[in-house]
Amino acid sequence: MQDCKVNILGTEWSIKFGGEEEYPASNGIDGYADSSTKEIVVDNMEKSKGQADAKGNLERYQKEVLRHELVHAFMTESGLEHNFEHKPIGIEETMVDWIAIQSPKMFKVFQELDIL
Fold it and tell me: What are the tens digits of pLDDT across the range 16-34?
């Protein structure tokens, strides 16, 4: 996978792949979405290759991480970044509605990036 830009609900976000050398904030995590810079960073998984505890299919896992971070970006651009209730059981209805409304737009981006 390679660096690119994507439109998230009208806002351009950058998607970047690399290790903690290029992106120190990725130290110890597989990816993050930075709402302040409109940037998603996904680990290039180079350190994981050949490790005994690594995922068997790192390319597939990298796509999973990217989808996860894209959901964060969609939540941010929908104005929901800081508006979640913490409930011990069940899925909050606002989240269910948001996913139902935004999922066609999300899937379009996933298709553009070939990560479905």
Answer: 999 989 999 988 899 999 9
Q: Say whether 17 sits in a helix, a strand or coil.
A: strand
Q: Where are the domains of the chain?
A: 4-112
Q: Average per-residue pLDDT in the chain?
A: 86
DSSP-derived pairing of the beta strands 4-8 and 11-18: antiparallel
Tokens representing 104 are 């066609």
Kindly give the parts of the chain with pLDDT less than 70. Answer: 50, 83-93, 96
Amino acid at site 73: A
What is the number of residues in the chain?
Answer: 116
* Distance in angstroms (rounded) separating the CA atoms of residues 76 and 45: 26
pLDDT at 3: 96
Largest CA distance in the chain: 42
Which uninterrupted H or E stretch holds 42? strand 39-43
CA–CA separation, 65 and 103 (whole Å): 17
